Amino acid sequence: MAWHEWPLIVFTVLAQTSVGAFLVLATLLLTKQLSSDAEDRLHKAMFGLWAIMGLGFLASVMHLGSPFRAMNALNMLGSSWLSNEIASGSGFFALGGLFWLLSVLNKGNQALRKGLLIGAMIIGVGFMYSMIMVYMIDTVPTWYTSLTPAAFILTMVVSGFALAHTLLALSNNNKACTDKTLSVMGLISLFAVVITIMLLSVHLGEVQTSATSALAVVPEYASIQTTRLVLLSLGLLLWIAPVIRNKAITAGPMSIAFVLILLSELMGRGVFYGMHMTAGV
Known about the structure:
Layout: H1 6-30, H2 36-45, H3 47-64, H4 67-73, H5 81-105, H6 110-134, H7 147-170, H8 176-206, H9 214-217, H10 221-244, H11 251-274
Helix pairs in contact: 1-3, 1-6, 1-7, 1-11, 5-6, 7-8, 7-11, 8-10, 10-11
């Protein structure tokens, strides 16, 4: 586990979680799945989403050591995936945050808010793409694989959808159709995570250099991934149990489920950074 990279672990997981949740909630708002009162309650609950995104950005600043370094990183905007990541992440935070603020204060017309919402969705997707490309480095064979984007997207889905469902529950927005859809997506994601871990194990077993092997770099790989899957499974069980019993999902159990799922994704990301090794060394 690369705990020394905890700022990056926290930043990437929280950012992906926030974008995933935002895309779900924005889709519900754009398609008018909620009443006006329900939308107002959801807007207030979305403070949690921006708080999580803010914590992610705070962690990224701590990794850089100074906010001024973040500004310097923008010098290569367009030619550097890191610069693109910082710019698109800031744009997502700005547009989405402004939409949220105007909605909570009931300011601005509907066209403006809709434009900000759609703009934040588009930039959020660009943010996630840039983040993936930052780690597609051909000199790091453990990362240079389709399993890297798969893992990042799965965090968006399983952790992001869990956050979205938690915020819906906190705002008392319970619809049987939405509850079932999000829960099923979470369950599908669990199986996808298991498959990804299995494929990653095979991939790491094939990566060797003159000095070491990928599996030797992460000696605790099996135990960490097992613990991660246990946490994820417990979280999913709490998530889908009410749906199986045809009951509404409530804020308390859903919040616990989200925390368990988030912890599992943080562990998985710790393994990811621990896998770092340079080809030929």
